[in-house]
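Design job #97: recover the sequence.
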């Protein structure tokens, strides 16, 4: 079976959009359906570690993923990225843990804790606090289960703490911890469909001329100067011809 090449053509019958756990693209998908009903959007759930390879191999047209974490895995080949928003980092702990006494904390407050670092690494932490638990769970979901079992605590982007919420666990913001950014990853060159989706997430209006053909021709320097003078006359900043006719001394008879 041959994988469709999304790098070379923009006439694909569908627009395949990958997204990672914790990301909710439903609003953007709804706007896409309104603006481009002729091109169905197909959502593809992927882990962060699989996004670069999926983009590089042409299995998806674009991925909403965590950056720069996604680029540490696989080969995205020639690609582009845009950061959309930054996520707060939280520590997930058992409900009766002493850390729940505060509303927020710093990395220094976690110095004596046992930490779980899952292999899917949703968050890059160069200087890891506390002591690492020797066992590394496969996924963030597995790590959350171990937090509930009292094995250790876990640093994650807040959206993942919400996704894996349990009644016996709570999370608290860590105000000086490294953060993760959610962004777009897509292959180069940028296709028309990719540009359309970028416009949606950036709040571009449907009538925006960016990326469209048939834009208004550029005006000459003479036309620009005339338009500028007309605008200034309309604002009363310089006297126009009509103003000169009605001003000054009356004509002699």
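Job complete. Output follows.
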């Amino acid at each position: 079976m041959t994988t469709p090449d999304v790098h070379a053509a923009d006439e694909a019958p569908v627009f395949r959009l990958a997204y990672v756990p914790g990301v909710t693209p439903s609003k953007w998908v709804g706007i896409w359906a309104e603006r481009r009903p002729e091109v169905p959007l197909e959502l593809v759930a992927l882990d962060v570690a699989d996004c670069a390879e999926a983009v590089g191999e042409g299995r998806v047209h674009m991925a909403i993923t965590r950056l720069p974490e996604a680029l540490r895995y696989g080969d995205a080949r020639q690609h582009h990225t845009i950061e959309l928003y930054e996520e707060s980092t939280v520590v997930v702990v058992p409900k009766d843990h002493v850390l729940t006494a505060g509303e927020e904390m710093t990395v220094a407050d976690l110095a004596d804790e046992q930490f779980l670092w899952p292999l899917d690494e949703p968050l890059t932490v160069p200087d890891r606090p506390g002591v690492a638990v020797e066992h590394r769970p496969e996924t963030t979901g597995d790590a959350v289960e171990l937090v509930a079992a009292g094995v250790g605590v876990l640093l994650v982007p807040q959206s993942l703490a919400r996704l894996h919420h349990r009644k016996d666990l709570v999370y608290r913001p860590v105000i000086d911890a490294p953060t993760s950014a959610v962004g777009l990853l897509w292959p180069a060159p940028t296709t028309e469909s990719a540009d359309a989706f970028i416009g949606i997430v950036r709040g571009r209006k449907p009538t925006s001329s960016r990326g469209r053909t048939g834009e208004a021709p550029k005006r000459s320097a003479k036309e620009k100067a005339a338009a500028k003078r007309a605008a200034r006359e309309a604002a009363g900043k310089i006297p126009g011809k009509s103003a000169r006719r009605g001003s000054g001394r009356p004509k002699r008879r």
